[in-house]
Design goal:
13 strands; three-stranded antiparallel sheet; 59% helix; four-stranded antiparallel sheet; 491 residues; 14 helices; alpha+beta
Length: 491
């Protein structure tokens, strides 16, 4: 039998090399893709030239010649097209960002409510999810728009709230401060307050993990933001001028207005996407082992504390990736707002196509805008996900394997224990400081959290039953001896 030929040298180009063949195939594939794109572009330009259709992006410098009913940026009909596209982009981002925040809050509440002990609340959450996620989003947008334009009072007789806010078919109008130096400094102070609040929360959490003493995670950060904004407002002269809406002859004028189109888009996108987010949150919570919840309950934590400190931190590893998809879906579904007349970037693009005939260019601009926003959202969420995984990995490395019972030394159990180190530290303090038989943890809960270990080498056997006075009841109600369990020293 002839010997096998020697493999080619590592640096030589030889067709028998798998690496060389793979590289050649990839180059050929890229060349074919580039050739196909060039053919499509060249064929499109030739056909447009043969039919006398103009091409190029020079129209962006021409006056738009149309008004936009709802703008966040200053805009006039004589402004160029690029300004009109900027206004449409601002309107799209306005709906997307507010919708993402409201969707996250509502979806999380509904997802957590699916695990409520209250049957009525649990049923309402289930009914909400099944109703809104099974009705097409376009129909929901049309429904909300019809409700807001048909059932709200006329603009001449609006519903008033203390004479300051007005709700009618013209929209919801509220007082806003007249922008000046004081408001600018207040906004800058609020930004600095957010940084100070983040540093406070970080310091408080580290102290909790080290000592088990939990400080304020909500009240103090909120006060820091408010005090910093107040200081900036006072430094700017404490302006008090407000633009208050008032009833004119035919409509309400002044203040900030949320049009029926904006409210319909916001309500429709939020309620529709929140149903999917609720299922994502429910699946993430269900992925956490039930023993974590039982161990937290044995410590005396309330269901709310158990959900906040034990379950949700572990469930975020499962929740974040599919949550990113829902944020992307909400941003892209905002393009359906053109169906009810909301002036988003798609609506501006349609108007520009009708006036200039630059269909390819306008569609390319819209595609670039949605591609950029989607990639930015995905990059931000991926960064947050990596940051959480990195922090969880550091906490897992700090957790000594020798401090857990032999049955808890698997990587899955260690990951669960490391996800809530502050709770485990609090359990250590309570377990070592409680009086025997009065406030001490039962051996099952203590072993579940890694606070005790067996003196002998054999694996601890789990026995069914309930706990009583710190002792584990086995089958038939017999008390199981716990002398072979000893507490571990505090770290």
């Amino acid at each position: 039998m002839s010997p096998r030929p020697a493999p080619p040298p590592g640096g030589a180009w030889n067709w028998r090399s798998r690496r060389v063949r793979a590289l050649v195939y990839q180059v050929i594939a890229l060349a074919l893709i580039a050739l196909g794109l060039w053919f499509l572009a060249h064929n499109t330009l030739e056909n447009m030239r043969a039919r006398g259709i103009q091409s190029g992006f020079s129209f962006l410098q021409q006056p738009a010649g149309f008004d936009i009913g709802e703008t966040l940026l200053p805009y006039d009909a004589l402004d160029p097209y690029w300004r009109a596209f900027a206004v449409g982009l601002a309107n799209t981002l306005r709906v997307a960002l507010i919708g993402i925040v409201l969707t996250t809050v509502l979806g999380t509440l509904v997802g957590v409510g699916r695990f409520s002990r209250n049957a009525l609340l649990r049923g309402l959450c289930y009914g909400y999810v099944e109703l809104f996620r099974n009705v097409p989003i376009l129909l929901q947008l049309l429904l909300w728009y019809l409700l807001l334009t048909e059932w709200l009072p006329d603009a001449t007789e609006p519903a008033s709230v203390a004479g300051l806010a007005f709700l009618s078919k013209g929209g919801f109008q509220i007082p806003v401060p007249i922008w000046g130096l004081g408001q600018t400094l207040a906004l800058a102070g609020a930004a600095l307050g957010l940084i100070a609040a983040w540093l406070w929360r970080r310091r408080t959490i580290k102290r909790f993990e080290a000592t088990g003493q939990l400080g304020s995670l909500l009240l103090v950060p909120a006060l820091l933001v408010l005090l910093a904004a107040l200081a900036g407002w006072l430094a700017g002269g404490a302006p008090t001028a407000w633009d208050v809406p008032h009833i004119a002859e035919v409509m309400v004028e002044g203040g900030a207005v949320m049009t029926p189109e904006f409210m319909a888009v916001l309500f429709g996108l939020t309620l529709y996407t929140a149903a999917f987010v609720a299922e994502v949150v429910r699946a993430g919570i269900a992925s956490v082992p039930k023993g974590q919840t039982e161990a937290a309950a044995s410590l005396g934590l309330t269901p709310g504390q158990s959900m906040q400190l034990v379950v949700l931190p572990q469930a975020l590893r499962v929740i974040i990736p599919p949550m990113t998809n829902q944020f992307l879906n909400l941003t892209k579904n905002s393009s359906l707002a053109v169906a009810i007349g909301y002036p988003d970037v798609v609506s501006i693009s349609n108007t520009a196509i009708n006036q200039t005939g630059r269909a390819v260019e306008c569609i390319a601009i819209v595609m670039l805008i949605y591609l950029t926003t989607s990639l930015s959202t995905s990059a931000l969420m991926n960064w947050y996900n990596r940051a959480r995984r990195s922090r969880s990995g550091d906490e897992l490395a700090k957790l000594s394997i020798s401090s857990a019972p032999s049955s808890a030394r698997g990587p899955r159990r260690l990951a669960g224990l490391a996800a809530a180190p502050a709770v485990r530290r609090l359990a250590q303090r309570r377990h070592h400081g409680a009086a025997a038989g009065a406030g001490a943890l039962c051996p099952a809960a203590a072993a579940e959290l890694g606070l005790v270990q067996c003196d002998h080498q054999q694996q601890r056997r789990r026995l069914p039953g309930r706990t009583r006075r710190g002792r584990l009841l086995g089958r038939g109600g017999r008390e199981t001896p716990t002398d072979h369990l000893r507490p571990l020293p505090l770290r």
